[in-house]
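We treat protein structure as text, and this decision shapes the records that our systems exchange. This encoding replaces a full spatial description with a residue-level series of whole-number codes. Below, we set out a record of this kind in full and without editing:
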Amino acid sequence: MNIVIVGAGEVGKHLAESLSTQLHNITVIEASEETSEDLNESLDASVLCGNGASATTLAEANVGECDLFLALTSLDNTNLVSASIAKSLGAKKTVSRVHASVQREEWLFDIRSHFNIDYLFSTERLAAVELAKFVRNPEGLVVEDIARGRIELHQYKVAAESKAIHVPISKLHLPPRVRIACIMRDGLNTIPGGADTLMAGDLVTLFGEPSLLDQVISLLDPSAQRKKDLKAVIFGGGEYAFALAQMLEGAAVQVRIMEKQESECRRLSGMLQDSLIINGDATSLQQLREEQVDQADFFIAVSPDDEDNVMACLQAKSLGTEYCLTLIHRADYADVIYRNRQRLGLLAAVSPRLATNRDLLRFMETDKYHKVSTLQGGVEVIQLSLKEGARVIDQKVSDIKWPKGAALVGLLRDQMAIVPTGEDTLNVEDTVYAITTADVRKPLVKLLTR
């Protein structure tokens, strides 16, 4: 793919480094002359020093011929203007990074359509999605999430006393838009149909909205009771804390935020209705004791300082908090901490840059499809975009003859993400997610692309 990236800061540079090793043609536009010179020496890419919001600079970078345009500076105005100009000059797909506060205003004003940009994202919300999924499923049963966490893939074991055993899947009365996508039995995965039944010991893979998936646990295992009244302490204010607190409030988690700056505490208090805001220092062991952090189920550190985040987590763990998670801004630190998380007593270490990289990978189509995840037994989750002329366009899901061993599990249309039913219709530019066995992948991709 021909990819143009505006901005070589933390996010842009990391993505450019990653993509330059994957046979993409990369052009980076960076305003800083010093940074541009450094990139020229270290990157296998074309580097242009200039203003990314200038039509002249964009034309010089041949954005009209690019397949993907990524505006990744830290400035909202630069990103929105440059992506809008790039689209007008002929860029096929444009993506703009914005501050989380801008993304929150989308309900009030359609910024994406106004600037004619294909996709808006904020690193703060993407990182919050990554952290929130560990809170919803701390034992690691979540295999994958798509569409900014609006759809998740969970795995559960079927208990011997489950009332779902020997009942056809079509008769289980699952929550709306929740799908049993795969059953592992005796080490083998199968993609079930409505007539298939479950047996004790089956490992069941489900797709659906995270809050709805929780309702399926008691059906598959009556003895499994998710702990209610979960408590989480968030260390640090700012947009990371706000985005995460919003998501946890929606999942009925009791949230306390510890923030040192009084002004930030007042700001958060005015924006969050159900969270308790504490003006305090979570790096202080004494204050953690006073706030009874040992009684919290989760301690999540999202301050701007990586060292403070890790040390605060270690102190919370020593006091008795069951699960500790940390945000790590430096991607190289995140990798080291993730690999040593069990030794450190951490459930997860999340990097905003890696979360962004992961989210944007779905636009990097070097083939007709992108492999999202591989499950035990050789079953894959793949994604692809439906192009003009594909035979499945404008057809109902139920009217399409799907290959045996494959199933549609997710549909992303603009900003809306759903687990499709038979009554949904496929449109041009929809991003579809399917689960398939390796031997059925080729006919599935052919069905969706021919």
